[in-house]
Amino acid sequence: MLAISTREAALTGLDTQPDWLASRPQLNPVMALLSYAYPVQRIGTRYKPAAPPAQPTHLLILRNPADQIRFIELNPVTARLISLLETDELTGHAALQQLAVEMQHPDPATLVRFGAEILHDLYTQHALTGTR
After folding, report:
1. pLDDT in tens, 71-108
2. Residue 79: which H helix or E strand, with range?
């Protein structure tokens, strides 16, 4: 589905040197955030799990600017961060603050600092296209 999607990122009006915390991070419009009970990306002839692991598997599937489909395995916190950003209503700081509250994180400022690095990493992987 993503390989043939006609959706394209609206790059006009995006900040090319984004402030991930003060602005609203923009997700790649040709992506899907999926969660599975099993690590579906590893299942094959040599790996057939008898029972699901304790944690679900979160995958971000996207089409990059070179029209290649990429799969990024996410931890539960990063998957939740992306789901918060899907509303396109929150700044990076607000999304990370909400995440800190949900996690009952003892040091929200540390989570926000680390989260800014995660947002930049998602940008380098083309999961984010910039900020508004």
Report:
1. 999 999 999 999 999 999 999 999 999 999 999 999 99
2. helix 76-85
- Per the CB < 8 A criterion, the answer to whether 92 and 25 are in contact is yes
| Cα torsion 33, 89, 123, 66: sign | positive
Residue whose C-alpha is closest to residue 116's, from 103, 97, 129 = 97
**Which pLDDT score is estimated for 11?**
54
Domain ranges of the chain: 17-131
CATH architecture of the domain with range 17-131: Alpha-Beta Complex (3.90)
The amino acid at residue 40 is: V
Token pair, residue 32, equals 């899907």
Q: What is the pTM of this model?
A: 0.86
Token pair 């040197």 in the structure block, residue: 17
The whole-number pLDDT of residue 43 equals: 80
Contact present, 26 and 127 (Cβ < 8 Å) = no
Asked if residue 29 lies in contact with residue 50, where contact means CB atoms within 8 angstroms, the answer is no
CA distance 3 to 25: 23
